[in-house]
Design brief:
It is a single chain. By secondary structure, the protein is an alpha/beta fold. It has a single domain (6-157, 198-232), classed as 3-Layer(aba) Sandwich (Rossmann fold). The chain has ten helices and seven strands. The chain has helices spanning 10-14, 16-24, 30-41, 63-66, 81-90, 105-110, 130-142, 163-177, 183-196, 202-211; strands at 49-54, 71-78, 97-102, 116-122, 144-155, 216-223, 226-232. Strands 3-2-1-4-5-7-6 form a seven-stranded mixed beta sheet, sandwiched between helices. Strand 1 (49-54), helix 4 (63-66) and strand 2 (71-78) form a beta-alpha-beta unit. Helix 8 packs antiparallel against helix 9. The longest helix has 15 residues, at 163-177. It is globular, with a radius of gyration of 17 Å.
Length: 234
């Protein structure tokens, strides 16, 4: 989940337990979104498949899914050493090889490696600016095998919704509904969102996917501003 160095990842690197509280409370719809991820992976891969997890965090939500599937090779990339240690524990039951890389995901995508069957990324893209988002998608397309898929979980603005309006609306929900956080934790979380979240719209993501040469763009599901989108390298 964390992909930018310094302050942009401070919330997740230094206060990982706060994020875990949000996941446990399902404030960001992890349960619904990851259930759809499993539905996308299970019928498509009755054979062993490789997966690159960009901004993997602690892999707590994805790990149980992958442990039920024939994963031949998993690589998780993140900038948080703490998160990678937790991810290693959460992937102990994986059938294939497991490796981790402490690196910025854009640097990972700029490098050379064997293409994979699946690239997965959760709540990462909205921290990147428009040019970086395009570079991210182009890098993912280059690292996918023909027929491979990119699965993205992220927040997206409504069509026609300005960024300031989105931030006001999202932070309003945080302050009203994220009741598992202490007031101090909520202030820290809302400050992070106000300063670092820059989500685009679904239409903008679709346009960038076309530039990146993804031939198949599929909005899978959404819960308020939280989306699962699939793209396929055809």
């Amino acid at each position: 989940m964390s992909q930018q160095p310094s302050a942009a990842t401070e919330f997740f690197v230094d206060t990982w337990e706060v994020y875990r509280k949000l996941v446990a409370a399902n404030d960001m719809f992890h349960q619904e979104l990851y259930a759809e991820v499993e539905k996308r992976l299970t019928p498509a891969y009755g054979r062993p498949f490789s997966l690159l997890d960009l901004g993997c965090g602690d892999a707590a939500a994805l790990g149980p899914i992958l442990c039920r599937l024939p994963v031949s090779c998993y690589l998780g990339v993140d900038l948080s050493p703490v998160a990678l240690e937790l991810a290693a524990a959460n992937l102990l039951g994986l059938s294939g090889t497991v490796a981790f890389q402490l690196e910025n995901i854009l640097d990972t995508l700029a490098g050379e490696r064997e293409p994979v069957d699946v690239i997965f990324s959760s709540f990462v893209l909205h921290h990147l600016d428009a040019d970086e988002q395009l570079a991210f998608l182009q890098g993912c397309r280059r690292h996918l095998r023909p027929g491979g898929q990119l699965l993205l979980i992220d927040v997206l603005r409504d069509e026609g919704q300005t960024l300031p309006d989105y931030l006001d609306a999202y932070i309003g929900v945080m302050e009203r509904d994220w009741t598992t956080l202490t007031p101090e934790e909520c202030r820290y979380a809302t400050t992070h969102v106000r300063h670092f979240d820059r989500p685009g719209t679904l239409g903008e993501l679709r346009a960038r996917s076309e530039i990146a040469d993804f031939g198949d763009f599929q909005p899978v599901c959404r819960h308020t501003w939280h989306h699962l989108v699939g793209m396929r390298a055809v």
